[in-house]
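Hey, can you fold this one?
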Amino acid sequence: MGPRPDPEFEKILKSAPLPPLPSRDIHFLREQTNTLKAKSRHPIPAGIKEYKVTIPVQDGSAISAQVYKRNFPQGKSPLYLTFHGGGYCIGSSEDETETNRALALGLGLVVVSVEYRLAPEQKFPTCVYDGFDALKWVATNAASLDADLAAGLIVGGVSSGGNIAMAVIYLNRDNDSPVPITGQFLSVANVLPPPVVPEKYKSAYKSVSENKNYAIPPAELIEVFMGAYQPDLNSPLFVPFNHPNGHKGIPATYMQVCELDGLRDEELIYERVLREEGGIHTRLDFYEGLPHHFWEFFPTMEGHVKKRVRNTVAGFKWLLDGGK
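Sure. Predicted structure:
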């Protein structure tokens, strides 16, 4: 017997079961989801400034990023470099807007959300290198953003964006002149695909089979996204969990995990490895009875959505306080 849905989520399932795959056309899905999210986005609240910046990348082109910060920064502002979700194929730098605004208003963070290049136009590992270039850019340009790395630099993301953030952090760690990252944030992130789970952890990996009836996005869509992205399962740029250099030097890590998410157990395994084997400070918020990325897919569950935003602000404060 697997985990049970949260009562509010169960009501949603009974009134409207999970819909079938709307389309296999990535460009259609990208346009459709961006339009829907733009329509539901609230106006910019008082006290917040939002604008775009341009970031040069190593192949000679450029990407953009969305900046969220207070209108009038007070003192040294920490910085948060973030990557949106969307299976490496859809989504935009304006996703997670409400959370990014809450972090800017509540903690004075300067949030830089990266518009990394998407598949199928750009396959693995382009988005990781875009992220690494963005990290170096924000470090160099922190003052122009009204940020100060001495106050803290958190790198993170949601879903596939969490995977990108994780890869960027490990890539930075192994660089000759690493940027001083003080915290890692992984929200419902894919960190350890089933085909490459080390033998000693396989018995703890049950979430894919347990949660197959609550798969969001559906398995067919994941197949489409992975076919477009074409990652290398043996590369630390996709699976840093199996990095040959291990986890030494990874910063304090804050994670969010959903019980009905197929990714649940890989996240729990990673948290345990960081804490028990790496001696790294971790914090984890666990959302019982809720599915992957519920705040985006089921925004009508307002109580759960608002709680998750509050948790995020508290988790970031913990990271800024040194993970203690």
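The first helix runs from residue 7 to 15. Let me know if you want another pass with a different chain boundary.
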